[in-house]
C-alpha cells in the first residue's frame, strides 16, 4: 500500500487511515449495540490499533512491519496462536480468567478466536519497536560482561520450575506461569538467535527496557479495550476480585512486562526452527497443529462460560412478542434493556404492542443476563433462587449463593456457575451505583 501525503507534508500510510476507520467503525458498532457486531469489538479494536501503530512506526523511520517486514509479521501472527493457547492450556488448571458472550456459531467462534489470538505477539512486540524508533534507551550502554556457562541452563531450569510450580500449586504460584517462556532464553543464547543474554554480554540493556515498558503500555490498551467489550475475558483470581483497573486487578498489570519479554523469547526461539535439522522443521508444524487442536475444544468447553444472549432465550417473550420487538428495531436483550431504560415500560409497551408484564420480566432478566456477561441461562438460575434484580444480588453471600445455584443447576441439568464467577457477579453488583448491569 502506498503512503499518502498529509497536509503538513509528511507521508502517512494509507493503512494507518484504514486503521483509524476500522477502529472507529468497531467503536460505533459497540456503542450502538449493533446486533452481532457488538460481540466482535476486539477485532476492529486491535487490528485497527495495530495498523495505526505500524503507520506511526513508518512515519517515524520510513520502515515498518507492513512496509518492509511482511514475512516477519505473518510469522508473528501465525505463531501467536499457539503461544497464547499455551496459556489457555495452563488456565484449564489455574482458572484465573474466563470468557463471556462467546459466539454461537462454532465456525465463527473458531475463526474469531484464531484471529484474536493472532494479535498477541504483535501487541507484545510492536510497542517495543515503536519505542526503539523514537530512540528510547538507544544511547545507553554498559560495560560488556561475559555470561557464565551455567546461566543459560539455569534460565531453562527456571522456566521449567515456574511451569511445574504454577500447575501443582495453582492458588499460591499462579503468577509464575507468565515467566515460563523466559526459559527459552537459554536456547536463544546457545543457538545464536536474538537473545537478551547476548544483549547483556554486549552491554546493551535497551531492548529489555523497551520490552518491559512496551509490555506495560500494551497491557493498558489491552485492558481498556477489553473493558468496553461484550465478548471479553474476566479475571477470577481468588483474593484479587477488588481494586481492579478495568477488568484487571491492579497488581496484575505487573504481568504484562513479563509477558512481553516472554513473547520476545518465544518468537526468537521459533524463528530459529528453520535453521535446525530438517526433521525438526518437519515435525514442528504437525506438533503445533495437534497442540492447538487439543487445547481449543477444552478451552471452549471450560473457559468460555456464556454465549451471546438472544431474545429467544427470554421465557417471558413468545414468538409473537419477539416479532413485534424486532419490527421496532429491538433485536437483542441489549437493545431491549436500553429501550426499557430510555422509554419506560409503559411507553415501550404502547410502541411495540407487547404486554407490560412481559416486557418488565424480559427487562429484568436482560439486566441480569448482561451483568458481567453471565448470560441468560445463569440469569434464569438466579431467578430460580429468588434473585430477580441486582440489588438483591448485591446482598448475597457469594459462597452460599454458589451452593444454592449449584443445587438448582443440578435439578435443571445445567452446568453450574463456578465460585469465581459468582464472586464477580456479587462484587460487581455491590459496587454498582445504580440498578443497571455492569459490563
Please tally the β strands and state the result: 6
What is the beta-strand fraction? under 5%
Give the strand order of the largest sheet, numbering strands 1, 2, ... along the chain.
1-2
Helical residue percent? 55-70%
Say what oligomer this is. Answer: single chain
Distance between the termini: 38 Å
Alpha-beta classification: mainly alpha
Run of helices and strands = EEHHHHEHHHHHHHEEEHHHHHHHHHH
Mean pLDDT over all positions: 91
The largest β sheet comes out as: 2 strands, antiparallel
Measured on Cα atoms, how large is the radius of gyration?
24 Å
- How many domains? The number is 2
**Quick one: overall form?**
globular
Low-confidence stretches: none
Count of helix runs: 21
Secondary structure layout:
Layout: E1 3-5, E2 11-13, H1 14-31, H2 42-61, H3 65-68, H4 70-94, E3 97-100, H5 106-117, H6 120-133, H7 150-168, H8 170-173, H9 185-191, H10 196-201, H11 206-228, E4 232-235, E5 244-245, E6 248-249, H12 255-271, H13 278-302, H14 319-327, H15 333-343, H16 345-352, H17 356-370, H18 376-384, H19 390-394, H20 398-412, H21 419-431
Antiparallel strand pairs: 1-2, 3-4, 5-6
Helix pairs in contact: 1-2, 2-6, 4-5, 4-12, 4-13, 6-11, 6-12, 7-9, 11-12, 15-16, 15-17, 17-18, 20-21
Describe, in short, the structure shown:
By secondary structure, this protein is mostly helical. It has 21 helices and six strands.
Word description of this protein:
The protein has 439 residues and is mainly α. It has two domains: 69-302, no CATH class; 313-431, no CATH class. The chain is built from 21 helices and six strands. The chain has helices at 14-31, 42-61, 65-68, 70-94, 106-117, 120-133, 150-168, 170-173, 185-191, 196-201, 206-228, 255-271, 278-302, 319-327, 333-343, 345-352, 356-370, 376-384, 390-394, 398-412, 419-431; strands at 3-5, 11-13, 97-100, 232-235, 244-245, 248-249. Strands 1-2 form a two-stranded antiparallel ribbon. A hairpin with a 2-residue loop joins strand 5 (244-245) and strand 6. Helix 11 packs across helix 12 (255-271), helix 17 (356-370) crosses helix 18 (376-384) and helix 20 (398-412) crosses helix 21. The two termini are 38 Å apart.
